[in-house]
Amino acid sequence: MRRAVCPGSFDPIHNGHLEVIARAAGLFDEVIVAVSTNYAKKYMFSLGDRIDMARETLASLKGIVVEPVGEGLLAEYCHQRGVSAIVKGLRSSSDFDYELPMATMNRQLSGVETVFLPAEARYLHLSSTLIKEVASLGGSVSDYVPRSVQKRMLSGESASVQLPRG
Ligand code: PNS
Q1: Which sequence positions are flagged as catalytic?
Q2: Closest by Cα among 58, 109, 55 to 86
Q3: Which strand (E) or helix (H) includes residue 31?
Q4: pLDDT 10s digits, 11-68
């Protein structure tokens, strides 16, 4: 069983993430979408909501599970679950500069490899941060996030959703 992990905050999950996860699912027997919480970051959505959104949008794809990554090291998480590769999408050289030290550190810590997939051209500009900014200023994000995520971003029904103040 070749198991990979796609880690991230997914605040919220967007079409660029989904495309990379789907490609990872084509390369590995099982892909764990590991939803992280970095306490230095301010999130729009709670961990539970970020997990729910990922589960809702990935439900139709086989071989994918979504779970929280917990508070410890990703390398340790991979070791405990028998994960052979971390899969990350790369949009730009700045993504690579950010990811390379983490990939090296993770390999040194637990032997887990990192596989980089070049982002699909139409998603090169996408980031959760930019999508949240566009949505909070009244722009349409329908081309960038699944419908269920868009609904959550627009409804503000969930108490955990706080649109950034402009
Ligand atoms: O979507 P993000 O916030 O850019 O995801 C970052 C993530 C989760 C991949 C990174 O913060 C991470 O690996 N966190 C786990 C903690 C850890 O192992 N830190 C050392 C990295 S070498």
Answers
A1: 17, 41, 91, 128
A2: 109
A3: strand 30-36
A4: 999 999 999 999 999 999 999 999 999 888 899 999 999 999 999 999 999 999 999 9
Q: Where are the domains of the chain?
A: 3-155
- Among 57, 61, 3, CA closest to 27: 3
**Ligand 1 pocket at CB < 6 A:** 7-9, 36, 38, 73-75, 102, 105-106
- pTM: predicted TM-score of the whole model, two decimal places: 0.92
Give the closest residue (by CA) to ligand 1 atom 21.
102
Pair of tokens at residue 71: 């508070």
**Has domain 3-155 been given CATH number 2.60.120.560?**
no
Kindly report the protein residue whose alpha carbon is nearest to atom 2 of ligand 1.
Answer: 8
Question: Which atom of ligand 1 lies at the shortest distance from residue 69's CA?
Answer: 15
Closest ligand 1 atom, CA of 10? 1
